[in-house]
Please model this.
Amino acid sequence: MAEIEREAMEYDVVIVGAGPAGLSAAIRLKQLDADINVVVLEKGSEVGAHILSGAVLDPCGLDALIPDWKEKGAPLNTPVKEDNFYMLGEAGEVRIPNFPMPPLMNNHGNYIVSMANVCRWMAEQAEELGVEIFPGMACSELVYGDNGEVKGVVAGVFGLEADGSYGPGTEPGMELHGKYVFLSEGVRGSLAKEVIAKYDLQAGKDVQKFGVGMKEIWEIDPAKHKEGTVTHTMGWPLNGNAGGGSFVYHLENNQVYVGFVVHLNYKNPHLFPYMEFQRFKHHPMIAELLEGGKRVAYGARAISEGGYQSMCKMVAPGVALLGCSVGMVNVPRIKGNHNAMLSGKAAAEAAYAAIQDGRAADELTAYEVEVRSGAIGKDLKKVRNVKPMWSKWGMLPSLALGGLDMWTNTLGFSLFGTLKHGKTDAEATEPADKHKVLDYPKPDGKLSFDRLTNVSFAMTNHEESQPCHLRLADESLPIAVNLPKYAEPAQRYCPAGVYEVLEGEDGPRFQINFQNCVHCKTCDIKDPSQNITWVTPQGGDGPNYPNM
Ligand SMILES: Cc1cc2nc3c(=O)[nH]c(=O)nc-3n(C[C@H](O)[C@H](O)[C@H](O)COP(=O)(O)OP(=O)(O)OC[C@H]3O[C@@H](n4cnc5c(N)ncnc54)[C@H](O)[C@@H]3O)c2cc1C
Model:
């Protein structure tokens, strides 16, 4: 094939991903120097289209970045007024009082927000400062310089043929070069994954851990709506089969975010995270809230859970990883947006100082030092043992010991040191014949829905003629290995029904319905054979979330 010719554009800083991390970096760079050239590239059709959080936002990140965010009209309209935590059994619930919880778990002072809308507002602030933002532009490749440094990205490749080749309608995209490239792709970023492997950035750190989070927006009976109420649950229906739990947040306009997170280190490959979520809504406490209401949106996204000990090295020549591309979620608080913002700010300050000194394409060590020793490191260090305790000892002991550990860490010490996570989530999957098949009730179409119906509420769309963006290293492996050994769990762990095993005349066949993909990245994480690689499809494809 002839060499592909692309135009190149030069910037000071190229930012991949318009989430809270990337947008914060862009805003901070322009605050520091109005003349610095900054571009933000976003694969969603518009800023916010691929953003999915709970979300209860701790405003500390925004306070640091834009102290007058209130006067500037930031959409933080719903302060948390009530904070509840329940342990669920099948037929009832027990309220865990707030007083034994360490102060860091308190949600007062936080806001229930649509992070998609917060990002849209942040993009407006960035554009007012002169940042160039291009939505609908997926960054599909990294560009390396002569010395192996990251020099830029390729963005805006459209119209590839189904086999990945260039055809008459293919637009080759362009190269965007920067003195520094920021990868703020969120959890399991596809370019970040390449950089982590190329520069061995996970070396000496614990493995990264993940969960899959699924979320619906409901409009409920106004008589049952309590604006500002935050509820978290644990226990039923997961019980001992997996770690995880739910969140129910009452935002404005009689809407409620109903979400469920399943930790991806579950062993039983028969487990069906999506159906656990659907079953959860039939708990009497939740069913009573939702009955008479309607679900208006659905989405899913992986969430990073490794925390403090799993944060990879975040800088390599010419490149820095931000936010959840590193993994900065405080797991017991289920919060990462504040740290994503703080990381964007810190990366911007390091890049600005470097550029002032005439530097380019080297390692922004000052950024990493700030993340580990500053507010982000302090936030994550206090809770570092909660997740490994849960993985090792289960929910109840980890509630008690994790609570104790968070208390002692608040006072500045831990009785446990720093616990390790151990296996990756893919490695945690055990053979199917060691576990029982789990039965899930059929969705009733009122409170619970089948996957494909729900996926239509993510408004996801992929041009069918383009290549499949879920790449198998070995096409035979799903049927030859995963099916006999693990009952091919892709059929169940994918919250969008992308993967199917179909019976044909010649035996079973693995089918990938990539058009349904909601870009959650669970397959890339959980496939026990690590045979699936998620690469970005062309820009503008994927979900179109309204106010997730
Ligand atoms: C179910 C769930 C509930 C959560 N609840 C909360 C909560 O209540 N509070 C809280 O603070 N945090 C919560 N989090 C965590 C929070 O969502 C993350 O910490 C946060 O989104 C990280 O921000 P980010 O900017 O790093 O990445 P993201 O928000 O994921 O943004 C990344 C952006 O980059 C774009 N992108 C990715 N790859 C490319 C590419 N190659 N080219 C172009 N664009 C690209 C994406 O489309 C996206 O817009 C939750 C997460 C989940 C999954």
Q: What stands out?
A: The radius of gyration is 22 Å. The first helix runs from residue 20 to 32. The chain is about 25% helix and 25% strand.
